[in-house]
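User: Hey, my collaborator sent me this sequence without any context and asked if I could get a structure. I don't really work with proteins. Can you help?
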Amino acid sequence: MAARPVDGRGPHWEPGDVVFWRESRHRGHPVRVVRDDARGLVVWLPRGSESVVARLPDGRDVRAVRPSERDLDTEIPTRRRWQGGGQVRVAPTGAPWSFWFFTGADGGWTGVYVNVELPHRRGARTTVTHDLVLDLLVHPDGSWQYKDEDELADLEGAGTISPELSAWVRAQGAAAAAVVERRGWPLDEGWGSWRPPTGWDEPLPLPDDVRYAADELS
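Assistant: No problem. I've predicted the 3D structure and written it out in structure-token form, which is a compact way to encode the shape of the chain:
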């Protein structure tokens, strides 16, 4: 099944379905569907789940070098475990961002990360986006700040992306910030206090069709 744009009309996944949330060519996580409807997709990423991340050829994290120095063709897709606490993710239909609700070791809400990204497309059991570098950090008191503005400026300065694309990404960040400031959906729905049903907190394995070239679990 070819990836299709998400327009809110379905078909929708059922609560409990496990799908693969792919953030970029070499990064993604299996997640469990909490809710999927016309408004958007809500999923749960359990702590300790298997993930695919990008590594440099020498094994370092890609963030060890400037974004303009990264080469997708030499990155190594690597299996590892999700190190953070359990996380609710919400991808509003058609929006170029998603909201990630972080929890701490005690299960309490520690804040929200707004990831600016391409609107999601779907396969049979995959939701696909692409990270657009700029992010927002939203604190429990509602205050927020941009993250990775320097990385976006680096890509523009090196000519990796055009000034027009950089301006578009910044405009999406500003639109996401407006949602944060008015406490719009999904911030108005209490996902920070949501807890998974019994059995949903078990770590998820990678789907069988996800390929990786290095393994940090072996």
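In plain terms: The mean pLDDT is 93. You can pass these tokens on to your collaborator as they are.
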